[in-house]
Fold:
Amino acid sequence: MTARGNPGTRRTRAALTGAVALALAVTGCAGGSDPAAGGDGVRGPVAVFAAASLTESFTRLGTEFEAAHPGTTVTFSFAGSSALATQVNQGAPADVFAAASPATMRTVSDAGNADGPPVTFARNQLVIAVPEGNPRSVAGLADLTRPGTKVALCAPQVPCGAAARTALDAAGVPLTPVTLEQDVKGALSKLRLGEVDAALVYRTDAAAASEVDAVEFPESAGAVNDYPIVVLRQAGNPAAAREFVAYVRSERGRAALTAAGFQPPRA
Structure:
């Protein structure tokens, strides 16, 4: 999961490394004082629908949650937020939904399928993902329009695609991608397979990928996505679902998300 590249890339990696160390320190200090540390009799399965960009961090949190709450089993469905929202609204069995944008979450809330108001638990920012070593010397969005440069974006209905379009418009860059993917993992996969030269993905996904460098660009600051989470109205295990949401928002949950490169929600 380490990467090398230009100085901007190395600064990004160094910042994330520092965040990981800080997050692990917070986790170690949490001890048994965390209100989501178990002992409450919560049992049974918890089905979580979550944005693809949450794959690594939520998988870790699921394992920790099961350890903290013996008798629970967490299963995940990771995909593009818009696809998951459609499945929820069509009656797919799930207890918790975590989306990569408030707009996507609203489609679930407006359909009456959220059990209470969603709560923002993290934020995420885009980077330009390039092969390790940044062979095309990409330094910003304008470089993606060079002749022969192939770029992958998420589809516009997906939160990472909407954020990419916002950033590109802010930069005045008329980029035409060679592919539009249904989630951020799909865009990153195109890069790792060598089918494109760059991809606009979340900072967390670039940090988790091997043989990938992340190039920061200033316009991403105006296209940061809030991540909301909610217990679903049709939850089969609402008590465990509420406890899982509390765990994600707990000190330990925040530490895991920070370690993955997520930003904390706005105060």
User: Anything to note?
Assistant: The longest helix spans residues 7-30. The longest strand covers residues 44-51.
